[in-house]
């Protein structure tokens, strides 16, 4: 593997017994894990190509314990990696050999549900799907729905700004989180945002959502809950080629229709998902669109007709509408199981996550096919077509020498291609370690230094999740240094202290 992580600090490794004892004093009982065989399950997240046994695992149960752990680690210069369910696909929760892995799984309670304000207050270890489960009897749901929603936690969703098939219409995590409680590395407990849509002051909540565990540990989340739409219908639309499916996606949006979800699968993905779930997908097409329309019955019926007409006009060879909610759920089940389905046809797969302008879709898919031939590795395409967020799954076998390295190089080329056509390195899986070394393809040194200044404002000793997101971490003092050129102080009119 080509990933290089910050070298472990020998002094921290030598103090392991002392650190374990200090953590046990804060989190009693079974909340501290230090035996090697019990640490192994934590050695990687869903980016399983990379693994590292952590120094130890701490599983706090209260905010006071989280604050005390972070305060002790700060005072003793010990690194900390926060972890939810460990489903990150970018290696965000990859442990460090000299770092405490702070597991938030025991924070698993729904604290408050307020239907009048349409909010739910939950602990960060509550799974994404459990929020919907907690409010569905009252006709509500939590909109962002990562395919991993049965397992991933809302704390992880906040840290990664996660998306899902319904984010095209209802927004990503950042559009559905109203407030968080956060513990800083110094052990201070702060509240950002609240229950309203527009909190006072600087938008620090916006800084925290998507900060990948680098700025603080989230200990409570307030999310918007929405009333279930009156009707929802999903269409399975088959195309003879991916190009016409791509054009159809652009035309639906251009017609002013924002479907609740609009996903595309190519032939290998259709075949894999159908064999796994029996969702009723057509097997004689090259590309499949799943388009969901929702809203009041009359609106939903009208839009369904409009989408079908656009699809037929752009070469669709089959259109099948869900007859009831069970069938609609089945259509989505195939899509949501596409990743595990890929696991049945290849020993390993590497899931990429880049975003491109929708209109460049056909060209990018063609170039990806050429890259697949160049690297000699298969690729399956499943993606959030409505928002241009690609998830190519590169198929490889880690037991074959050189295949992981080829998969990594192939993946890097795909992400560079996304940036080249005007897109971005990530859509929803985060940077983590996976895209860290590609940040230069998108950001200049100045951009990266500015981003790191934000990190330094929260964590000046660089103890929280180091080695992730930034290709190299500069000492904060360097970044804060004022550049005086030929005796000219910048902004001389400003008072200096
Ligand atoms: C099969 C599969 C399908 C997936 N589908 C999607 C999808 O459709 N959309 C999508 O966006 N993602 C998807 N993912 C990726 C993943 O599920 C999300 O990134 C998810 O939000 C991670 O949540 P987690 O609880 O597992 O977090 P972890 O993997 O444990 O951690 C992820 C990051 O969050 C940080 N973190 C975790 N908890 C906290 C906390 N309390 N405070 C501060 N930082 C914290 C960690 O340090 C790490 O950087 C998928 C993953 C898999 C395996």
Short recap of the structure:
The protein has helices spanning 10-14, 16-26, 36-39, 63-75, 128-135, 154-160, 167-170, 173-176, 204-208, 242-254, 267-277, 297-313, 325-336, 338-345, 361-375, 403-420, 439-442, 445-458, 476-480, and strands at residues 32-33, 56-58, 79-83, 99-103, 110-114, 119-122, 140-141, 177-183, 189-193, 217-224, 226-227, 231-239, 261-266, 287-295, 318-321, 348-351, 354-355, 379-384, 389-396.
Describe the structure.
With 497 residues, the chain is α+β, with helices and mostly antiparallel strands. Among the domains are: 10-103, Uridine Diphospho-n-acetylenolpyruvylglucosamine Reductase, domain 2 (2-Layer Sandwich), CATH 3.30.43.10; 110-227, Uridine Diphospho-n-acetylenolpyruvylglucosamine Reductase, domain 3, CATH 3.30.465.10; 230-345, Alpha-Beta Plaits (2-Layer Sandwich), CATH 3.30.70. It has helices spanning 10-14, 16-26, 36-39, 63-75, 128-135, 154-160, 167-170, 173-176, 204-208, 242-254, 267-277, 297-313, 325-336, 338-345, 361-375, 403-420, 439-442, 445-458, 476-480; strands at 32-33, 56-58, 79-83, 99-103, 110-114, 119-122, 140-141, 177-183, 189-193, 217-224, 226-227, 231-239, 261-266, 287-295, 318-321, 348-351, 354-355, 379-384, 389-396. Strands 12, 13, 14, 15, 16, 17, 18 and 19 form an 8-stranded antiparallel sheet that branches. It has a 5-stranded antiparallel sheet with strand order 5-6-10-8-9. Strands 1-2-4-3 form a 4-stranded mixed sheet, with helices on one face. A hairpin with a 4-residue loop joins strand 18 and strand 19 (389-396). Helix 10 (242-254) runs antiparallel to helix 15 (361-375) and helix 11 crosses helix 13 (325-336). The radius of gyration is 23 Å and the shape is globular. Bound molecules: flavin-adenine dinucleotide (FAD). The site of flavin-adenine dinucleotide (FAD) has 36 residues, from strand 3, helix 6 and strand 10.
């Amino acid at each position: 593997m080509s990933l290089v992580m910050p070298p472990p600090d020998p002094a921290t490794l030598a103090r392991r017994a002392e650190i374990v004892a200090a953590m046990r004093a804060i989190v009693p009982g079974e909340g501290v894990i230090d035996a090697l065989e019990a640490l192994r399950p934590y050695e990687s997240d869903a980016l399983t190509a990379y693994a590292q046994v952590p120094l130890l695992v701490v599983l706090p149960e209260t905010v006071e314990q989280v604050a005390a752990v972070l305060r002790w680690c700060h005072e003793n210069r010990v690194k900390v990696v926060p972890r939810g369910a460990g489903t990150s696909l970018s290696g965000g929760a990859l442990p460090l050999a000299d770092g405490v892995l702070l597991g938030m799984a025991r924070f698993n309670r729904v604290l408050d549900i307020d239907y009048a304000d349409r909010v739910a207050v939950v602990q960060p270890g509550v799974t994404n799907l459990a929020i919907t489960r907690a409010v569905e009897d009252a006709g509500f749901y939590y909109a962002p729905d990562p395919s991993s929603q049965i397992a991933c936690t809302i704390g992880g969703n906040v840290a990664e700004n996660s998306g899902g098939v319904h984010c095209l219409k209802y927004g990503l995590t950042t559009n559905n989180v109203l407030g968080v409680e956060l513990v800083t590395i110094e052990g201070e407990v702060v509240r950002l945002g609240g229950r309203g849509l527009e909190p006072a002051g600087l938008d620090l909540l916006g800084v925290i959502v998507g900060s990948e565990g680098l700025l603080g540990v989230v200990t409570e989340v307030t999310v918007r809950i929405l009333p279930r739409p009156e009707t929802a219908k999903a269409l399975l639309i088959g195309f003879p080629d991916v190009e016409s499916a791509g054009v159809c996606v652009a035309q639906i949006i251009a017609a002013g229709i924002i479907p609740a979800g609009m996903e595309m699968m190519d032939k290998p993905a259709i075949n894999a998902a159908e064999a796994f779930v029996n969702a009723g997908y057509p097997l004689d097409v090259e590309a499949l669109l799943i388009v969901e329309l929702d809203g009041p019955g009359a609106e939903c019926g009208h839009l369904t007709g409009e989408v079908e007409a656009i699809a037929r006009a752009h070469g669709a060879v089959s259109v099948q509408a869900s007859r009831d909610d069970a069938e609609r759920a089945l259509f989505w089940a195939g899509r949501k199981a596409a990743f595990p389905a890929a696991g049945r046809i290849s020993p390993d797969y590497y899931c990429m996550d880049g975003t491109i302008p929708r209109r460049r879709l056909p060209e990018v898919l063609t170039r990806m096919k050429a890259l697949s031939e160049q690297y000699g590795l298969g690729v399956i395409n499943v993606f959030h077509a409505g928002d241009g967020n690609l998830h190519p799954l590169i198929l490889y076998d880690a037991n074959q020498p050189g295949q992981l390295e080829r998969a990594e190089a192939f993946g890097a080329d795909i992400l560079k291609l996304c940036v080249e056509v005007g897109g971005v390195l990530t859509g929803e899986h985060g940077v983590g370690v996976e895209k860290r070394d590609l940040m230069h393809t998108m950001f200049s040194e100045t951009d990266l230094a500015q981003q790191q200044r934000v990190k330094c404002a929260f964590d000046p000793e660089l103890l929280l999740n180091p080695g992730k997101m930034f290709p190299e971490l500069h000492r904060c003092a360097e970044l804060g240094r004022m550049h005086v050129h030929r005796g000219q102080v910048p902004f001389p009119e400003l008072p200096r202290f």
